[in-house]
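Q: A reviewer asked whether we had any structural model of the full assembly, not just the individual parts. We don't, so I'm hoping you can provide one. Inputs are below.
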Amino acid sequence: MIPEALKNFDRFQDVVKEMEICRKYGMDYSLEKGDVGKFINRYHPSSLDLRMAELIPRTLDTKTIRLVSQDGYLPPFQAGQYISVAVEVDGIRTSRPYSLSSPPNQTGYYDITVRRVADGLVSNYLLDELKPGDLLRTSGPEGHFYYNPLFHDQTMVCLAGGNGVTPFMSMIQQIVDCGLERTVYLFLGSPDLGQALFHDRLTAIAARHENIHYVPVIENPPEGYKGRGGLITGDLIQQVVGEVSGKTFYICGPQAMYDFCLPQLEHMGVPARKIRKEAYGPPLRVWEQAGWPYAVKPQDAFEVRVKGGGSFSAPAGETLLTSLEKNGLLVPSLCRSGECSQCRVKLLAGKVFQPAGTPVRRSDAKFGYVHSCVSYPLENLEILL
Amino acid sequence: MHDYDAIVVGAGNGGLAAGAALAQSGLKVLMLERHNIPGGSATTFCRGRFEFEVALHQLSDMGTPERPGTLRTLLDSLGVLDEVSFVSMEDLYRVVIPDRLDVTLPVDRQGVVDTLQERFPAEKEAIKKFFDLVYGYGLELYSFYRNPGGEVERFPLLKRYAFRTAGEVMDEFFQDPLLKAVPGAYWGYIGLTPNRLPFSYLSLLYVSYIEMLPCHVRGGSQSLSNAMFNRFLSLGGEAKFNCGAKKIVVRDGVATGVLTDRGEEISARFIVSNASKVATFTDLIDPGEVPKAIFEGMKGRTPSPSSFNIYMGLDCEPGEVGITASTTTILPDEDMSDRHFNQMRRLDTENSVMGFSCYDVADPTFSPPGTCQVALLTLRYAEPWLRVPPSQYAAEKYRCAEAMLRQMERVCPGVRDHIEEIEVATPLTFMRYLNSPYGAIYGFEQYMKDSLFFEASRQMPIKGLYLAGGWVTDCGFAPTIKSGVSAAGAILRQAG
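A: Here is a predicted structure for the entire assembly that you could use as a starting point for your response.
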């Protein structure tokens, strides 16, 4: 039904002719079935089923789990990124993020390096139960903790605590393997030398490459120890790296390390934009944080009703994500530190505690969307999954 | 008996609007969304202390409470107007050719003419006549829309200009190529360079943005999405997140339900697909159930460009780095020929047309105090990105972003020293999140043959199936929301 007037517009016939020609020789979209998924899966598969190739002991309580692809292809990543490992332990389906400790130029495998944790659910399962040949379901590489050439300095000052050295191991190996023009100062905080992960390899790399500086900092050094002792203080950093300008700082370690080191960096005059922080799990003893209501005890249990499906009881001191998983409700999760937003759920009723600084969007706060991995029930809740 | 009256596949603007409109009329509606939040493109994301706007640059057709535009009226009818607040922008846009041209157009017809006349005094008369045409044409277009009947003499301007490109019309009026670059810079909103862009769209852009004011949503487009979804819920709508549609079930030419990616089959009398038209018919419906006419009809259409975006959080106020307008276009030169069109088919971003938005200019509360954010982008077709070996992807991404930052620095000196957060999105990123063919961000292209005079009929050869979103007619916030309301309207008429 073309209006008469339109037919009399100048060039109408030309346009109609063009339309006909394009219809005749144009694209056959029916041939594109599945194309988008095919291209995207090379980067961001919804999950990977990797085979454990090797278990490599590192320190007394850490081992590297080497994972290979079944079809030979692994999605690329940037040194510093992590994968999330999905497991079922004691009937609970859950996941944990682990930084890749192998460098991205090593395309044959992904390494994750896992430390035994007292009462650790997943770490200990991976170390004790998983055997070479077993399959492990993981996410693709994720995370934003990597060197960004658009605005980071070529000199990196890396502060690692304990297992927090794993992303730096990946970065450093890539730098030396690929001959990248970058300089690294790595400070590794460890209770003792024996627990300093990758100590021997880092020592050897630093001895061979003048752009890699490795500084283990031993909290309780034995008598006569010649290296650095105590904590990673601003003074110590400044002694080693000199001027702070022209350097980007990276920090990855347990919560206590952030609490201690970040004020030191601020005091040294490092601007916020020069400090890159890796997410590192939900807060320990969240009920001791400012803002936690005095009346609520961590063991207090609240009822969580899921819209359109059942309810369960959840303790205030445990993340909503963990309680969901313990009750057989699977919510996607990656970083489990409040950052990636994969585990977002909508609160329809009730209140949760969220640690200060959790990056929720302004309208999410208004409309009740919370990151369940860092949300703690303070009342009975109703949620939408 | 069906499980639901209607299932909405996808909670983008189109799906949300359709869902809310259907629920408002008392239908039992289920919304499925593969992501964990509503919004689709209309969303924001956090990095550090910044919340980045993904898609919205300027909202069109809002108008004022006293003189409401289509979009305001629609949002009002959906009952979400009270949940969202809007900020209007004081400038239409700024165009810069480094060292040669720097013009900011105000949101005012006379102001636009005055600004251009002052900068190009030799073409004073032509500038006035050009904007008389832009407005006169726009008015004829509105009356043609309302009633296209009668003789062609009713539409003298449409008769002459309807099938001319913006470039041709500017050539007719203007001499100075720098002057032509100013209206020409608007092409990025549609994705076709001025020598291909139908003049109709240029006219509509000016008339609708000037008369209905360019706006932004306070708190970003996610606020609008969340408000629409909340409205849907409060009307009794049901929703499943992290739950995509694997298949739209069609039996004997009738859509009967949806198979979710969790493996449940849910039945409904009506299905609204907010997936792209291409994905709906190639990926979601069994090939044997798709009438030939659908692919025949799409055959002449081409997917729009995707985009290469850099989202930046700066630790300074916009003015400190020379950002003076909400929307800025940087042109490498006044060339309006095929060169820029061809550039969209390349990986390299060197010397490209690029634009950036800074929401903090109009709304200083958009980013944390003392900071601002910039969304810098250049339109790009996805094809070359599909050929980059995955192992080289990050390096290419940084190389292209680096070239854009260098070019931006010519207009905003020192911007690089203030970057606190940055995230780069390539056409592959858009492909991943939009699930659209070739990462297209504007739906199908809008050449003359696809322009508003020939909009495809909404009649669907599959009974019970309706489309909403940017692949139905035009792209953008107002058109996609409108498409959802229209789909709901068609369903309600059918449901009786």
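A: Points you may want to mention in the reply: Residues 305-434 of chain B form one domain. The mean pLDDT of chain B is 95.
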